[in-house]
Design goal:
The complex is a heterodimer of chains A (about 1000) and B (about 130). By secondary structure, chain A is of the alpha+beta class. Chain A is about 20% helix and about 30% strand. The radius of gyration of chain A is 38 Å and the shape is elongated. In chain B, strand 5 and strand 6 form a beta hairpin. The chains are: A alpha+beta (about 1000), B mainly beta (about 130).
Chain lengths: ~1000, ~130
């Protein structure tokens, strides 16, 4: 197709053509086009269907504020980006775009019935309508609504692109690259400080892109801006970032920037798709400009209705006329400039409709002198056409005879809204300026300053003055050298953006039923906002949520002020009384890829592996994730499933022996003259009298009296303890100890060192464990007399230093061999070779769990949940009765902790010995009671025990120790399971096997 | 991300290196076992949660590993000062304090029970 709306000699694009397709039709555009400008050059206005009513929609703007022209851009099946604003997507050769939210086609969309049925879909409709039956919401209503309403569809394939990330520091960060931003950056850069300036568009220049009347330092505005940017880019202390959106302003001048690196390239050539910049600046200059608002009138959403500044941008920058016979509807002067530019380019201006009674000034005079009809004191009350505007109907404000004027595009402007988004994100407070009816930056919360349009500046000269001064001041405050040497840029001429109106225009008044859209993206009309107020929404935050005004991808950049004005009018309040909704990051949508960046797949979270990981892999271990650790779960042999492997491992450990990697246990060395005193305070047990060379099972409480952690502690010397913690508790126990040592007991002379990663731990458990360990050890007598259960010795194993513990987490004779982690695998292999002589196996965490449960040994965090006391867990014996202080001593005496009927640790045997209970299942006394049943406890651990020949379970049960032998029930979907309460020790109750 | 000045390292470091550790200047009694229920409640459960200046503990966990104290404005997240553990609460300039209505109300003034209304005797009901 030909670009019949491209005007020769207009615009700034090089004459290089680019081919693209939209909804399967091929078009030509030019290098430098956006998808929107290229479509308009081909006369295409209809680009999408609206969210709720499926109304045909066109291109409203020429920038990031676009609510309508959302398309999906597809490079391939995995690279299909939904909801791309056609106004910011740069054209590249071969670009493929498709419209969204329509079926079967854009011009004929079945979903359009929603528009005719719209009285049913008023604000709050979902909340009110789909209430009953309750279950239908999840299965019927929600899926249906989600598919009928909505935007684009995300690809189902993983994102094949990669993203980059940069941290940057600078003295002055300038957000926005219009005339204000450029002037501020120039002033700051001259002082030699580090300056970063960013702008969301492909080229900096901002409003100079369309403001034909601007001239600075003897050049036209655009030429000045390009020359100034080139000057900035050439300076070593300046970083100029185009295609880069400042999306979030966080504490202490920390600003997030998203740079689109390859979205505009036909061939990304392996470059990162986007780059996340995390910038810390001493001073920030906000030069974010202003956004034009549309007019609110009946059917103001028809394709061809467009912001006046957008039409001007398409003409002056892209050389595209948005129509051949264009109407203008305005309440301020700036739209006149658009009409004049178009007229001078040979486009017919059907009429300017001005809501003001007596518009006057040079622009109005010039329009008159060019013979343009000006209908003042009138409004547009409707338009003709559906897929494209064909006419506008105008009427005097006070009512009266209406008149229809044919047009093929209608430019609208109700005034300009300063972009205070980033200022507001910085937690600055905006104030309402009643004279100009707009919110402007008020109190600042951070070291930043607003200049230009976003600060309410209406003239180019004032903007440049302000920006230059702000840039110089920011640089000076941030440590720049004396004032800039270069001359301040001077505006020779500029344009004026003052004035306008807010809220609904004529014909969209309070009791009209017309569809006068406030928020295009969410299909919110003036009527919806009034309805919300009538239904009791008083706060603007409630109005927003009830109507969805200002939500979704454009975040109400064009709609918020209109919505607010209509709500205020309906409430009979002033605008500042009603207030403004909160601006939140991101300013425009940011991809998850940019945020997640490198942190995905294996880099999402660190993986910790023990010294024997390689050996376990080679021997077919199946691993499980325990926090960040990979732990061997079980070691299946050929033909074994998990069940068979775990049964064999459990049997082998009790019959002969097994090797288990316990390296992930937390280990802390407590050293110093006051080490025992410190242990006395941190653990419930007594430590002073524990002899060097002996071990004790210790319990650590929180101050509230509940179990925090447990583990075996060995005393290596009078002033040295080797403490073990649970795997998951390692870091927090260390933190807990440090906290008390540094802040509560700083008088104690103690040092704490985490040694978790320094020592590999190989548990050798089972009747033959001593036979396996003994041959490899030097300098330690392993006999029962010399080294009884719960003792620790230092010596060597395989020539490597060891801390050898005689201890057991299985109930059988056992050792835990600590060796420096670097030797972990070598010592494991030596022990393995010895073990082979005795038929020992390697066992994993599952068998470890079963074996300890057979003995009723708890696992903190599984059998306890932060509300279990030592008494509840049957561990009262571990509390030093004569002690006057330890962490938790006061908590333990709280009334609820000593009350009768607390949940206590018990064992459960199922009546059918083959049935294995579900962990977490509830326990009841009477399974025939009405639902909700009275639950008296729950299952904490449950396994099949090969050694016992029946299933075993641990449970926390109210008054459990008083219920021994009682029959209780575990209700499950297939019926209640009968259980008998028993001791939590299922195997070798007398404990003889510890020395067996 | 906040920048936090560690009073031990004497350097501003990114928030990632630190961990918050709750309200500061809540001392554990040296005879805690004998503490009354009310005192233990204040010590263990009651926190001021002010809108405005809070004195709180931080740990430079991925740095020098020391616990220290900070005064921070909960409205702006601005750190007014940081100081070493054990040092007294600094007096702050008036300008540093946030909205006066909420700031730094001592814990015992929070959760104040409303005086219960006198039950109306049956005969008196109107």
């Amino acid at each position: 197709m030909t670009e019949s709306f491209r005007i020769a000699g207009r615009g700034r694009l090089a004459s290089r053509t680019a081919r693209f397709s939209f909804d399967g039709t091929s078009y030509f555009g030019m290098a430098g086009d956006t998808l929107a400008s290229a479509l308009l050059a081909n006369g295409v206005h209809l680009v999408g269907r609206s969210f709720k009513y499926h109304r045909p929609r066109g291109i409203l703007s020429a920038g990031a504020e676009e609510p309508n022209a959302l398309v999906s851009v597809e490079r391939d099946a995995a690279r299909r980006t939904p909801n791309v604003r056609a106004t910011v997507q740069e054209l590249y050769d071969g670009l493929t775009a498709n419209s969204q939210n329509r079926w079967p086609s854009l011009a004929f969309d079945v979903g359009e019935v929603n528009d005719m049925a719209s009285p049913l879909f008023s604000a709050g409709f979902y909340y009110k309508t789909f209430m009953w039956p309750k279950a239908a919401w999840k299965n019927l209503y929600e899926p249906f609504i989600r598919s009928a309403a909505g935007l684009g569809v995300a690809p189902h394939l993983p994102d094949p692109d990669h993203y980059a990330s940069r941290y940057a520091h600078c003295e002055v960060l300038v957000l926005g690259g219009g005339a204000a931003g450029i002037a501020a950056a120039l002033a700051a850069a001259e002082t030699g400080v580090r300056v970063i300036i960013c702008d969301e568009q492909a080229e900096l220049g901002g409003a100079m892109r369309y403001e034909a009347g601007a001239a600075i330092d003897g050049e036209d505005g655009w030429a000045w801006s390009q020359a100034s940017v080139a000057k900035l880019a050439a300076m070593d202390n300046v970083t100029v970032l185009s295609r880069t959106t400042a999306f979030g302003y966080y504490a202490q001048n920390f600003v997030g920037l998203a740079e689109r690196v390859t979205e505009h390239l036909a061939d990304p050539k392996g470059l990162p798709r986007e780059r996340l910049w995390q910038v810390r600046a001493k001073r920030v200059i906000l030069a974010t400009g202003a956004i034009e608002r549309h007019m609110v009138f009946a059917d103001n959403d028809r394709p061809g209705v467009m912001l006046a500044s957008a039409a001007r941008t398409y003409l002056n920058h892209y050389g595209v006329a948005v129509g051949r016979n264009v109407g203008v509807y305005t309440a301020n002067d700036s739209a006149y400039a658009a009409a004049l530019d178009l007229k001078k380019a040979g486009v017919e201006i059907a009429a300017i409709v001005d809501l003001r009674d007596n518009p006057a000034g040079p622009l109005v005079d010039e329009a008159r002198s060019l013979g343009i009809d000006i209908h003042h004191g009138r409004g547009v009350v409707g338009v003709g056409g559906k897929l494209r505007v064909t006419s506008m109907t105008i009427q005097p404000k006070a009512g009266g005879a209406a008149r229809t004027i044919p047009v093929d595009a209608l430019l609208v402007s109700s005034g300009w809204t300063p972009s205070v988004h980033l200022f507001s994100q910085s937690r600055g407070k905006v104030v309402f300026d009643d004279a100009t009816k707009r919110f402007l930056p008020g109190n600042y919360a951070q070291d930043c300053v607003s200049v230009g349009g976003c600060n309410g500046s209406d003239s180019l000269a004032a903007t440049l003055d302000q920006a230059w001064a702000a840039g110089a001041k920011a640089a000076r405050e941030a440590g720049g050298k004396a004032g800039p040497a270069a001359a301040k840029p001077k505006a020779d001429s500029g344009e004026n953006f003052v004035g306008g109106m807010l809220g609904a225009g004529p014909g969209a008044h309070a009791d009209s039923t017309v569809k006068a859209f406030v928020d295009f993206q969410n299909d919110v009309t003036a009527k919806d906002i009034r309805l919300a107020v009538r239904e009791g929404m008083r706060s603007i935050e409630h109005v927003k949520r009830f109507t969805t005004n200002g939500m979704a991808t454009d975040q109400g950049k064009t709609s918020n002020m209109h919505g607010l004005a209509i709500a205020a009018e309906t409430l009979g309040k002033d605008i500042p009384e009603v207030g403004l909704t909160t601006f939140r990051a991101p300013y425009t949508p940011v991809t998850f890829g940019t945020i997640v960046n490198h942190g995905r797949g294996p880099l999402f979270d660190p993986t910790r592996r023990t010294a024997t990981h390689g050996w376990a892999q080679k021997h077919g271990a199946v691993f499980e994730d325990v926090g960040q650790w990979k732990r061997a779960w079980y070691f299946p042999r050929t033909g074994e499933d998990m069940h068979a492997a775990v049964n064999r491992e459990c049997r082998t450990v009790r019959e002969t022996a097994g090797l288990f990697d316990a390296s992930t246990l937390g280990k802390i060395e407590v050293v110093g003259p006051d080490a025992a005193k410190f242990m006395e305070l941190l653990y419930t047990n007594p430590w002073e009298k524990l002899e060097p060379g002996r071990c004790r099972y210790g319990i650590m409480l929180r101050e509230d009296g509940f179990i925090y952690d447990d583990g075996v502690v060995g005393r290596l010397a009078p002033d040295r303890f080797h403490v073990t913690t649970t795997t998951g508790g390692a870091a927090r126990v260390m933190n807990h100890m440090e906290d008390y040592l540094q802040t509560e007991f700083p008088q104690l002379d103690v040092w704490l060192t985490s040694i978790s990663e320094q020592w590999a731990v190989i548990a050798v458990q089972g009747p033959n464990s001593r036979k396996i360990v003994e041959p490899l050890v030097e300098g330690i007598d392993l006999s029962d007399e010399a080294m009884p259960h719960m003792s620790v010795r230092e010596g060597t194993i395989c020539g490597v230093p060891t801390r050898l513990f005689r201890m057991s987490f299985t109930g059988d004779r056992g050792f835990e061999v600590n060796v420096p982690a670097d030797y972990g695998q070598a010592v494991w292999e030596a022990l393995w070779a010895e073990g082979q002589k005795h038929g020992a196996c390697a066992y994993g965490t599952e068998a470890m769990h079963v074996l300890r449960a057979e003995k009723g040994y708890i696992i903190v965090g599984q059998d306890t949940d932060g509300t279990v006391t030592p008494n509840d867990a049957g561990l009262d014996w571990a509390i030093g009765k004569k002690k006057t202080d330890f962490v938790g001593i006061r908590g333990l005496t709280r009334p609820d902790l000593v009350a009768q009927g607390r949940k206590q640790l018990v064992g459960l045997k199922t009546k059918d010995s083959k049935t294995v209970l579900e962990e977490g299942a509830q326990i009841v006394a009477n399974p025939r009671q009405a639902i909700p049943m009275t639950m008296i406890g729950h299952v904490t651990s449950s396994y099949w025990s090969e050694n016992c020949g029946h299933s075993i379970a641990l449970a926390l049960l109210a008054g459990g120790r008083e219920r021994m032998g009682e029959t209780l029930y575990v209700p499950m979907p297939d019926g209640p399971i009968e259980v008998e309460v028993c001791s939590p020790v299922f195997f070798d109750e007398k404990g003889g096997r510890l020395n067996g | 991300m906040l920048l936090i000045h560690c009073p031990y390292c004497e350097e501003e470091r990114p928030e990632l290196e630190f961990r918050n550790a709750g309200e500061a200047h809540i001392a554990r009694s040296s005879s805690i076992a004998e503490e009354s229920g009310e005192d233990f409640e204040k010590f263990f459960f009651i926190r001021s949660n002010p809108k405005g200046i809070i004195f709180e503990r931080w740990r430079h966990v991925h740095g020098c590993a020391r616990f220290f104290n900070a005064a921070r404005d909960t409205v702006t997240d601005r750190f007014i000062t940081t100081y070493k553990a054990g040092e007294p609460k600094p007096s702050l300039p008036k300008s540093a304090s946030g909205p006066a209505a909420y700031a730094n109300r001592p814990p015992d003034q929070l959760n104040v029970k409303r005086p219960r209304r006198k039950p109306v005797a049956k005969g008196e009901a109107k």
